[in-house]
Amino acid sequence: MSAQTATRAQPAGRSLPSTANLALRRTWIELLAFLREREAVIFILAYPLIMMAIFSTVFGQEEQGSAAGSVPYAQYFLPGMVATGVMLTSFQNLAISITVERDDGTLKRLRATPLPATSYFLGKVGQVLIVTTVQTAALLVLSATAFDVPMPSTASAWATFAWVFVLGTATGSVLGVAFSSVPRSGKSVTAVVTPIVLVLQFISGVFFAFFALPSWMQQVASLFPLKWLAQGMRSVFLPPEAVVLEVGGSWQHGATAAVLGAWLVVGLVVGVRTFRWRRRDDG
User: Fold this and answer.
1) Which InterPro entries does the entry link to (predicted)?
2) 3-class state of residue 123 by DSSP
């Protein structure tokens, strides 16, 4: 389906669809385009599930923590996988896809249609929300059924999950749009974006217990949203007594909201100021 399908000229005497209506149509187009890219489906949608299965199978009998508070490896690993899934689907996916669309002229053609820019960006965010929701649901089902990871049993825990999930997804999406202006071309975007995401995964408590990392690494990770997203998810999926494993001695929900919110604002400001619809060599 072409980009112009959602913005086809209307018959005389009829107004164009609303911005919200166009955003819904654009969301469908973006979702179809994502699913047609096998590499994206495997390395973004399925990646957290694959890693969860591998690591939990290999280290499933180990426990993370100390006598003061310990949890099975799979249970400790799950929050990090949820967090990294959100970042992959939002930040990495959008940073790469938008850069490629700019490079192949898709953005330039879209800009020449009646499609409002707001509908285009809402379509991207809508696609991210759908994919992330499906991905996270599949990850929770896999963890609960294959590795006996207990799910939250209180409404407050699920409420925490909801706001951390939504805020983290929004922040990752906005940052992905903003970062899409950094790579010089579609050919180089993967080489630019992927190492950043990998480094953040290793220092943010995704693959390793955050409390076991060197203090300087913890301080660096605390500057970026993935660490706080993973910590927020740990507060949902780990038992209350596991709070002693946190570096700050608490779940720090206020700090999680503040850091993710600050990055959301930074992404919005930078994105508005730097977003380009054309390649650098196209004027």
Assistant:
1) ABC2_TM, ABC2_TM_bact-type, ABC_2_transport, Nod_factor_ABC_transporter
2) helix
Which pairs from 32-36 meet CB under 8 Å and 24+ separation? 32/1, 33/97, 34/93, 34/97, 34/127, 34/131
Q: Note whether 22 and 7 are within 8 A (CB).
A: yes
| Burial group, residue 137, by CB count within 10 angstroms (0-12, 13-18, 19+) | exposed
Q: Which residues of the chain have pLDDT under 50?
A: 1-13, 66-68
- Reduce the DSSP state of residue 73 to 3 states and report it: helix
- What is the spatial distance between Cα 210 and Cα 96, in angstroms, rounded to a whole number? 28
Inter-residue contact 27 to 123 (CB < 8 Å): yes
Distance, CA of 222 to CA of 259 (rounded, Å):
9
Interacting residues of 174 by C-beta distance below 8 A, sequence separation 6+: 264, 267, 268, 271
CA separation, residue 73 to residues 24, 45, 64, 142, 241 (Å): 40, 22, 6, 15, 16
Residue matched to tokens 């939002």: 90
The three-state (H, E, C) secondary structure of 93-115, written as one string = HHHHHHHHHHHCCHHHHHHCCCC
Distance CA 27, CA 42 (A): 20
pLDDT digits (tens, 9 = 90+) for 50-78: 999 998 888 766 676 544 457 888 899 99
pTM of the model: 0.89
